[in-house]
Structures
1.
Amino acid sequence: MIRIKNLWKRYGNLDVLKGLELEVKQGEILVILGRSGVGKSVLLKHIIGIEKPDQGSIEVSGVMISELKKNDLYQAVKNMGMLFQGSALFDSMTIEENTAFYLQQHGDPVTGKPFPASTIRQKVEEALSMVGLEGVEKKMPSDLSGGMRKRAGLARLIAYRPSILLYDEPTTGLDPITAQQINELIVKTQNELKGTSIVVTHDIHSALFIADRLALHQDGKIAHLAEPKEFMKIDNPIIQFMKKTYTSREPL
Ligand SMILES: Nc1ncnc2c1ncn2[C@@H]1O[C@H](COP(=O)(O)OP(=O)(O)OP(=O)(O)O)[C@@H](O)[C@H]1O
Ligand SMILES: [Mg+2]
């Protein structure tokens, strides 16, 4: 369970989060939609502890993430993983090293013990194959296409198998077939890990495929949150616009 209360964040003179409230249930996939620049990535960064709120609290599985610092914070966020919007691969590491990064850094998220090298190799291979990236282990991120880098970022996240998974735009820039494979992978990973996932996306097809619940981030807050059927009926211009783009593709 993730519980966010009265979250405020300002950069310079721009109020991005303005008293945002959100509860994410254990075991669900929550999809967050919202216009560009509204603060969706900022919100995910607060949940994983990279950004500190000006005001308000973030509680994850009973721990007040927003009050922790340094090693306490590091320990508390070990069971979380994030796919960053720009993939955020390490340029100087091969794809194999990138994919192994959290496994090596944190060890087993359940026991905290280091993994043997052979286990790491096997997990990396499995994760790369799950995202359709076999054979690129020795390549550098700069040798891959944008879509391949995105999938490598995803492999790094699912290889680690954290119990809370944050995905920032997992299907953006991918072709429709790969995007659908990623959607299926997100659902499959969720079912296997029995974790909690938050997915930020602009892709309404992806959103409706994966979501248990949908949220609209607007004006610094979560303006609406509901199960897909109810959500799509909400009288809000952004939601109705998305609905129109969705149904207009149906008769094809
Ligand atoms: N570290 C920072 N310093 C200053 N401003 C920031 C910082 N991080 C985010 N912002 C600002 O906060 C606002 C929200 O950014 P954010 O990246 O969360 O948007 P977003 O909803 O994820 O948009 P998109 O859909 O385009 O990814 C933007 O105006 C951005 O410029
Ligand atoms: Mg973003």
2.
Amino acid sequence: MSSGVEKLRRMLEIRACEERVQQLFAEGLVRGSTHLCIGQEAVAVGVVSAIDSERGDTLSCTYRGHGYALAMGMSLRSLLAELMGRSGGCCGGKGGSMHLTDPDIGFLGEFAIVGANVPVTNGAALSAQVLGTGAVSVAVFGDGAVNIGAWHEAVNLAAVWKLPSIFVCENNLYGEYTPFAETSPVPSVADRAAAYGSPAIVVDGQDVDAVEEAAHTACERARAGGGPMLIEAKNYRFVGHSRTDPATYRPEGELEEWMRRDPVQIQKQRLIDKGELSARRFTEMTRKAHEAVEEALQWASNQAWPVKSEVREGIWV
Ligand SMILES: Cc1ncc(C[n+]2csc(CCOP(=O)(O)OP(=O)(O)O)c2C)c(N)n1
Ligand SMILES: [Mg+2]
């Protein structure tokens, strides 16, 4: 289990990185698209705090995965170089924002196709089960994934085979521009787990400790051979779906209401109340997070572009 201050540090790092990435896109230094997780850092940090890649645990997620990559231990240098298309990036600059991957840290990667990572996670979980490693595999997806056929097939298979798979839904109320209520006849993703005989936990996705606790519960059950569990983390993105989305489809006041429950501020206040953090140290931690991002950005900017002769390397294993 990570300390409360460490969890805050990680969230601050993700926030600082995402804010900088937003600027880099605006400046044209990062191409393609990007899906930021500003406001959603607590789910990434909470879930990853409960798993251990050194014992073989793995995680896959959606295109909104910068936070997961960093939480899993990807360096800011590796991430920013990848986003900028440089050879020093985790995929040699050929993956970009939506395809960050690093198997060495158990990060099976980001998946741009909605729901596609869920069966892949089952594959890693099946491997752990067959080899008897006791490892778990986590699939993170959005509320938009739960109407995808592959999602239902994967959750069903994991339940039938009692795979050590953990299904984490970030229910941020919208799948792209569509409210969840318009695409689901049941109000909660967690309700769907019952159809597969799988337990589910609904958790406040703005609270990193609550997310971590839920993830520990799921991990314990999965490691003991009990099979999969679904965690529905209710959260909200403070930015549009992707870089070009001003998010005008959201009702007035909704964003402001969620911003009052900023995961960084919740954790900051909790630690101050417990006497584990001072306002001054928080300011210092924030400054350090921004400095680390700038240092990594400097490094990434000086990395070479991938060379043409290697264009076909690393694309099929
Ligand atoms: C199979 C598939 N269908 C459609 C898309 C286009 N698309 C990209 S993101 C997205 C919305 C997904 O929303 P959600 O799963 O709630 O994730 P969020 O972006 O809210 O984190 C859609 C429909 C896609 N990438 N893959
Ligand atoms: Mg969503």
